[in-house]
Amino acid sequence: MGRAICVYCSSSDLVDGAYFEAAEGLGRLIAEGGHTLVYGGGSIGLMGALARAVHQHRGRVIGVIPDSMVERELAYRDANELIVTDNMRQRKAVMDERADAFIALPGGFGTLEELIEALTHRQLKYHDKPAVIVNLNGFYDPLLRFFEHFIEQHFAKPKHRDSYRVVRDPVAAMVYLESG
């Protein structure tokens, strides 16, 4: 049986087409691998492209979205399961609880915040779920340099590099998750 894979990614419709292709490719791979997508429940941007791709390839989608976003018609109503929370903190808690693994595609502040929380919880041993950063086109290079700065300045230990895996594309992300 497949895993429940939580994917963090952008809700922007304005990003480069390469990021949409990656989201759609990841959605296809999740579905074809027999996995379930757990994600932020949005219908726009990379989030929407990802969820639609999972469905196009006969996969299962669990969306988790705060009620304030549902009210603005941003929810992916075709999700197999749409969980509506009171706020963003509850959303993250449900996503974390439902996930067996985490993947971060390129995204903005929300994606970064979700990724950092997942990594922090792994570091603190609240979970031991794999976390993968898809560094498509070097998108995460500045963040990864900043992580190294943490280590160089002794704000993090070198062993914390093991909290995440960096890959170049969705295919490598899925190969990593399916091999472990």
Q: Low-confidence runs (pLDDT<50, min 5 residues)?
A: none
CATH topology: Rossmann fold
Q: What separation lies between the terminal Cα atoms? A: 14 Å
Strand content: 15-25%
Which class of secondary structure composition applies to the elements? alpha/beta
The main β sheet shows up as: 7 strands, parallel
CATH class: Alpha Beta
The string of secondary-structure elements, in order, is: EHEHEHEHEHEHEH
Portion of residues within helices: 40-55%
Using the 3D structure, state the CATH architecture. Answer: 3-Layer(aba) Sandwich
Quantity of strands, as a count:
7
Strand arrangement across the biggest beta sheet: 4-3-2-1-5-6-7
Total DSSP helices: 7
What is the global morphology? globular
What's the rounded overall pLDDT mean? 96
Number of domains: 1
Tell me the Rg in angstroms: 15 Å
Structural features:
180 residues; alpha/beta; Rossmann fold; seven-stranded parallel beta sheet; 7 helices; 7 strands
Descriptive overview:
By secondary structure, the protein is α/β, with parallel strands linked by helices. It has one domain: Rossmann fold. 45% of the residues lie in helices and 18% in strands. It is built from seven helices and seven strands; from the N terminus they run βαβαβαβαβαβαβα. It has a seven-stranded parallel sheet with strand order 4-3-2-1-5-6-7, with helices on both faces. β2, α2 and β3 form a beta-alpha-beta unit. The longest helix has 16 residues. It is globular. The mean pLDDT is 96.
